[in-house]
């Protein structure tokens, strides 16, 4: 029998494996707003797992749907076959997308959703006779998962530099982080709409007729909570329209109520051509990703192809029965409990709490939108990320799960949280900030 205490076999993702295995911290159970750690202590979840458990942990209707489906239809291929739950999940998801984005391609993760969206964009350009449009534009500091497509359009150095030349024909917009003008903004920062004009620079450099699509996160999460300046997304949309370039919103974290609406597109009133999603789609109970596609894009690819398969792309588990069942149950739960509205209702209280950390030791910026909070810390001289990592470890040991990226604390609690949880999260954080050097 393998020894459960032997941690050597599991090569952990995005982890300091040597540090972790010297001081492991494991979760053994979860319910509602809390995890239970291996030593039995309860941990308040201020990160929704990893930006994904929007309805709180271990929700019975989702568990029941998974259990029932596992006993009825464990698997059915969706290549040339399929099953009713996949169609129902697609229709249900399409119904809460911005108008017109109701054709759904399923994947199993955010990374796969991103790569699917990039491929769909390229296939569309070809299908409509614009095959010279092969260039993909991302943004500095963007995170679009870990597929080769995603890291190529992504803009985080550490995610790229170990992996060779990446996709060719990719360029990047400037990022929108401008603490000199926007530090301590509540909601959308006032300055920086003109940064969208960077797309005009790339059009002038490469020619619009070489550009297939632009991909951005409406709110950049993994890079440390960068909220779009007022007017920025609108301007990006207008420039894409002017040059007939597709706009993709990567909403892997912003969809499903995280910023108070079904999508960031709805929240910001800017409709892209494709939306990538994952995480909250199934409340993280079963892996699933999806791309919502504007109907005309779908129709162009499907109707302009020779008879037979139209898009040579898909995954064994696209629209898996358990994931489809979990997605339907999750969307039902969001609606039944009004969780998107709840996030919006709590936004002001949350914002007050986030900004109450202004003036605490090490804090150089606080930012918020929906139920997202970003608290940027001054790095320790010569030791970037160390202070934040120490906070993460101490918080866990004291019963609070936060996420840190670089020297930024990123918070994204389940949308079921109550005001008392908000109070607890920020009182604990305040204490920790005062305690660490
Ligand atoms: C915006 C965005 N895109 C893509 C991904 C990748 O998702 P996954 O880890 O499910 O592949 C993430 C994950 O955090 C994300 O935040």
Specify the number of helices: 16
Helix amount? 25-40%
User: Averaged pLDDT, please?
Assistant: 97
In what order do the strands lie side by side in the largest sheet?
A: 4-10-9-8-7-5-6
Kindly estimate the percentage of residues that lie in beta strands according to DSSP: 15-25%
Low-confidence stretches: none
User: How is the quaternary structure best described?
Assistant: single chain
Largest sheet: 7 strands, mixed
The 3D shape can be described as globular
| Number of E strands | 15
**Category from helices, strands and their pairing:** alpha/beta
Radius of gyration based on Cα positions: 21 Å
Bound molecules: pyridoxal-5'-phosphate
The end-to-end distance, rounded to whole angstroms, is 44 Å
Describe this structure in words.
The chain is of the alpha/beta class. Strands 4-10-9-8-7-5-6 form a seven-stranded mixed sheet, sandwiched between helices. Strands 1-2-3-13 form a four-stranded mixed sheet. 49% of the residues are buried. The mean pLDDT is 97. Pyridoxal-5'-phosphate binds next to α5.
